[in-house]
Amino acid sequence: MGGDYWAGKRIQHGYVEHMSQFHLFGVLLAVVGNLVISISLNIQKYSHLQSAHREHARPFFRSLVWWGGALLMALGEAGNFAAYGFAPVTLVAPLGCMSVTGSAFISVMFLKENLRASDVLGMTLAFAGSYLLVNFAPNISQAVSARTVQYYFVGWQFLIYVILEILIFCILLYFYKRKGMKHIVILLTLVALLASLTVISVKAVSGMITFSVTDKTQLTYPIFYIMFVIMIASCVFQVKFLNQATKLYNTATVVPVNHMFFTTSAIIAGIIFYNEFLGAAFLAMFIYFFGCFLSFLVCFLVTRHREKEHLPQSYIDLGTIPGKQTLDKIQPDSNGLSRGTLPDGSDSTKSPT
């Protein structure tokens, strides 16, 4: 009897250690994927800068540099997608701050942008927050199979959550479409509501693919294709509202607010759909949420005032210089004899030479 007990303990310990290795691999995929995304963003930015300095600008999609950045972007997103198949949602989603800090560091190294004190502080906090997230995130040990997804999909928690999300989404969409309210909070809340469905479906699809590779194929279950359709549809509409936000507001405002809303919605989705905080200790949860707070603070520190540093100064407006008057007409009139007027309205031809 004692031998069976200790044998079971050894098997359980081996399983937990195996799942911990899975989680670590998922964390590495998420970190590397976010860093690759930051590299791709700077490569695409470099391509746009090259095009702006050419005498005859050409479309960005004809640049090999831009396409190299787009390819790296796809690889980084693929790494993030695969990370959801190995690690919990509440662990992968907050690590998105690594792409923000990585982009700031790479822009300083290769695009010769200014390194500010807030950038150094943000990078330090990013490493501290990531350490807390990795060590205190819920360490659940469950394989995402098709039957598991089906069980969660029809659970009462998820059904109530989806109904509330649909109601909030419809109310915000009414104010956005009918009332013309395009505040950044409304737009990014719409993005966050869609992002929660995206995270749930991405975790399900990636988890079922991982389960198919390591154990038994799950691609014959209808739930796999249902989740795949939800993933594509939510991504498309999420990008639509996010693009609208970037058109109306500068990137330095959209990036941190979107990261905060997206991470919050992803954590809520992971808690409700996948029960990722089930049995977690209060202290571990408190330290985990403090790590999330640090990741939010990082995005605000790194993006703060960065947009203003890149505003083009192509001309000097004389009207903004104290003590200077703007000339009403400084070009000669081709149809008349006068050669322009002075600021007081008198004709320049009447004044002595």
The structure class reads: mainly alpha
Mean pLDDT: 77
Give the amount of beta strand, in percent. Answer: under 5%
> Would you list the SSEs in sequence order as H and E?
HHHHHHHHHHH
Mind telling me the C-alpha Rg?
A: 27 Å
Number of distinct helices: 11
Shape: globular
Instruction: Report the helical percentage.
Output: 55-70%
How far apart the termini lie comes to 117 Å
Question: Spans with pLDDT under 50 lasting ≥5 residues?
Answer: 1-18, 309-353
Number of domains: 2
Strands, total number: 0
User: Largest sheet at a glance?
Assistant: none
Explain the overall architecture.
This protein is 69% helix and 0% strand. Mean pLDDT is 77; it is low at 1-18 and 309-353. The protein has 353 residues and is mostly helical. The chain has two domains: 1-140 and 282-305, no CATH class; 144-275, no CATH class.
Topology of this protein?
Elements: H1 2-53, H2 64-83, H3 89-92, H4 97-110, H5 117-136, H6 146-153, H7 156-177, H8 184-214, H9 222-248, H10 251-274, H11 282-303
Helix pairs in contact: 1-2, 1-4, 4-5, 4-11, 5-11, 7-8, 8-9, 8-10, 10-11
Transmembrane segments: 22-43, 64-86, 92-111, 120-138, 158-176, 183-202, 222-242, 254-274, 280-302
Subcellular location: Membrane
Membrane topology: Multi-pass membrane protein
Give descriptors for this structure.
transmembrane helix, 353 residues, disordered N terminus, mainly alpha, 2 domains, single chain, disordered C terminus, globular
